Amino acid sequence: VSIPRDTIVGICLLLLAGLYWWGAERIPESPLSGGVGADGLPKTLAYALAVLALVLIVRSLALRKEAAVNRPSPAEAAETRHQHVRALGMLAIGIGYIVLLPFLGYFLSVILLVGAAAWYNGKSLSPTLAAVAVGTGIFFYFLFVRFLDIGLPAGFWPSLAAGLGA
Amino acid sequence: MTGFAYAWDALTGTPAVFAAMAGVTWGILGGALPGISPSIAMALLLPFTYDMEPITAIVLLASTYVGAEYGGSIPAILIRTPGTNAAAATAIDGYEMHRQGRGGEALGLSLVAGVIGGLVGLIFLVLLTEPLSRVALLFTPPAYFALGILGLSVIASLSSGSLVKGLISGVIGLMIATVGTDPVSGVGRFTFGRPELLGGIEFILVMVGVFAVSELLVQAGLPDWQKTTQAQTRLKLPNWAMLMRLRRSLSIGSFIGIFEGCMPGAGGSIASFMSYNEARRWSKTPEEFGRGSPEAIAAPEASNNTVACTALVPTLSFGIPGSNSTAILLGGLILHGLEPGPLLFVKHPDVVYGLFAGLFVANFSQLIIGALLLTPAIWLVNRPKPFLMAVIYALIFSGIYSVDETMFDLVVVIVAGLAGYGMRLLNFPFLPLVLGLVLGYLVEANYRRSLLLSSGDHAIFLQDPVSLGLLITAALFVVGSGIREVRDSRRRIRAAQAAAKEASS
Question: Distance of CA B462 to CAs A37, B138, B254, B443, B458, Å?
Fold first, then answer.
C-alpha cells in the first residue's frame, strides 16, 4: 500500500512546524518586545502550519482512492523521473558556479556556467558553444564589472599576478 | 498639487519616460520567449532596480508587464507556442492566420488591440483608484493588519490548487518574513548566528528563485520549442475600417479585462479565454473562430493588456496583488519603502501619478517599439533554447550578486529555486507564498502596533469597524472556499469509487 504524496508532504510540514516552533522558543526575550513578544507571530504561524498540515494529511488520505485511479502509467512515471533528473542536473550546474566563483573569479566562472548549461541542455561541444560562452562572459564582465561597477569576485588571479610580479 | 501636475513632473523631471520604454522593450523580448512569463521577466529585472529612484523602478517594472503581454503573442502567432499564459487564446487563430500567410496581419492586430486595451485599462485604473485614496484616513493599524489578512485569505482562496495548499504557501511566506531582526524589539530571530540573516531574507531573492530559477529547472526537462521563418512576418497594422469591424470584440475584451483585472487572483489568462469565448458568442461570424478570425485575436489581446493596467487597482489600493506579476510589482513598491494601500495615495502621490503617466507612455510607445522589435524578437525566439537558458541562468546569478554583493544571496536563490520546483511539482501556488513574504513585515508590525495601543487586548481588531469588516470578509472567503473544496472532494471521491467499481467488474 503506497502512501499518498500529499500525506508525506503533510508529515514533512508537521516536522517543519515543530522545528519552527523550537526555533521560536529560542528567540530571546526583550523588554522592548511589547505585549506579544518577538516570538508571538512565529508561534502562531507554527500552530497554523501544524493545523494546515494535519488537514492536508486527512484530505490526502480521504482522496487516496482517487489518487490511485489517477496514478501515472509506468511510461509517464519514467518520463517524470527523467525530468526531475534533468532539473537536478541544472541545479548542480548552478551550485558548481557558486562553489567555483570565489576561486576562479567571475569572468571564467560565468564562461563555464554558460558553456556547461548550454551543453547540458543539448548543445554539443563545438566552436559555436565556446564562442557563445566566451562572448557572454565578455559581455557580462563589461556590463556588471566595468559598467555597473559591481564588485564580483576576481578569484585567485590577482594574488597569482601579484605572486608572479614579486 | 493635482494628479496631473504630479504626472507631468514625473514625465519631465525623472527618467520615467525612458524607464517606460526600456520596460516595454524588455517585456516584449522577455515575453516573446516561451517560458518567460511577465512575472519572470519582471523578477529578472528586479535586482537591477535596487539602486533606482522609486518612480523609475516602479514604472520600469509596470511597463515590463505591459510589454510582456504583447511579446507573448509573437511566438503564439508564429510557432503556436504562447510566450505567456495569457497569449494561449491568441495562439488558436493567430497561428491559423500565420499558416494562411497572414502572420503579419495577426501580429499587427495583436499589437494594436493590445495598445487599445492597455489605454482603456489605464483610464479605468485612474478612475477606480483615485476615489479609493479618500478612504485612507479610515485605515488604522488594526485595519492595516486586517487588510493584510484579507489579502492573504483572498489569494489563498482563489489561487490555483487547493485552499489548504494556498494557505500553507501563505503561512510559509509569512514564516520566511519572520527571519531576521524583530521590527519592534530588535532581537534576532531564526538567524542561526549568521550575520547575513540579521537583515532578513530579501524577498527579491525568493521571487527570482521561485519564479525564474524553478522555470529553468522545468525547462531543462522539456524539448526545444519550434522555430519559425522570417517569411510572412512583415508587420501589417490594421486600418480604420478593420478596427471598426473589430470594435465589438475590442469592447468585449476590454470590458472583461477591466472586470477580471480588478478581481484578485483572476489574471490575464482567464480574461483572455473568457474574451475569446464571449467574442465568438457575440460575433456575426462565429464559424470563422478557429480558422484565422481577426476578432479572435483582437478580443484576447485587448483583454490581457487591459488586465496589465486594471490589475494594479487592488494592488495599489489595498496591497492585494491579483497575479504573480502584480505581486512582483508590490515587492518593488515595498523594496523602495513604499507601503501599498490607501495611504500610498496620501504619502506618495508622486509615485502613483508618476506610475499612471509612465503606463500611458508605455502603452503608446508599445505601438512603435512593438513594430521595431518584431524582427529582434523573432531572431531571439529562433535562437537555440540551450543558449537562451544558459544566458538567463548567468543573468540571474550576476543580477542577484549585484544586489548586496554577497555569495550568500546566490545560495538563497538556488535554495528558493529548488523550493519553487518542489512547489510546482506538488501543486502549491506561488502567489500566496510571495504575498506572505512581501506583506509579512506589514502584517506583523501592524498587529503588534495595534496590541501596543490596546495594551494587549485582541478585541481592538473587532472594535475597529474597518478591521472588523475586513476580517469578516476574509473569514467568508476562507469558509466559502473550504465548503467548495469539501464539496469538490466528495464529488471526486464518489467518482473514484465508481471508477474503481467499474474496473473491478
Answer: 21, 15, 39, 16, 8
- Testing the interface with A: which of B45, B149, B389 to mutate, by most A Cβ within 10 A? B389
Q: Is A44 left (phi over 0), alpha (psi -120 to 50) or beta?
A: alpha
Q: Does A92 touch chain B (CB under 8 A)?
A: no
Mean pLDDT of chain B: 85
Query: Given pLDDT bands bounded at 50, 70 and 90, which one contains residue B1?
Result: low
- For residue B448, the chain A residues in CB contact (below 8 A) are 34-36, 40-41
Would you state the cell numbers that stand for residue B65, as one nine-digit string?
A: 508587464
Nine-digit cell at B125?
Answer: 485604473
- Output the pLDDT for position B229: 64
Cβ–Cβ contacts within 10 Å for residue B95, how many? Answer: 21
pLDDT digit string (tens) for B206-257? 988 998 899 899 988 887 777 776 555 677 888 999 999 999 999 999 999 9
Closest Cβ–Cβ partner in A28, A65, A113 for B393: A113
Q: CB-based contact (8 Å) between B456 and chain A?
A: yes
For chain A, say whether B165 makes contact (Cβ under 8 Å).
yes
Q: Which residue of A has its CA nearest to B222?
A: A83
Beta-carbon separation of A52 and B167 below 8 A: yes
Write out residues 120-149 of B within 8 Å (CB-CB) of A.
Answer: none
Is the pLDDT at A71 greater than 90? The verdict is: no
pLDDT higher than 60, residue A98: yes
- Cβ-in-10-Å burial (0-12, 13-18, 19+) of B12 comes to exposed
In this predicted complex, what is the ipTM? Answer: 0.91
B451 touches chain A (CB under 8 A): yes
What is the pLDDT, as a whole number, of residue A46? 96
With CB atoms and an 8 Å threshold, state whether A59 touches B411: no
Residue B169 backbone phi and psi in degrees, to 5: -60, -45
Distance from B52 to chain A by nearest Cα, in Å? 12
Q: Which of A78-92, B3-17, B366-380 has the highest mean predicted lDDT (pLDDT)?
A: A78-92
Q: What percent of chain B has pLDDT over 70?
A: 96
Rounded CA gap, A7 and A56, in Å?
7
Overall residue count recorded for chain B in this entry: 505
Across the range B82-90, mean pLDDT stands at 80
The verdict on B174 touching A (C-beta cutoff 8 Å) is yes
> Helix, strand, coil proportions of chain A in percent (round to 5)?
75, 0, 25
Helix (H) / strand (E) element for B239: namely none
Cα separation, B121 vs B135, whole angstroms:
22
Query: Quick check: B168 and A120 CB within 8 A?
Result: no
**For the stretch B397-436, what's the b/e string if a residue is b when 16 or more beta carbons lie within 10 angstroms of its beta carbon?**
bbbbbbbeeeeebbebbbbbbbbbbebbbeebbbbbbbbb
Residue B55 contacts A, CB cutoff 8 Å: no
Please report the residues numbered 357 through 396 in chain B whose beta carbons come closer than 8 angstroms to any beta carbon of chain A.
Answer: 384-387, 389-391, 393-395
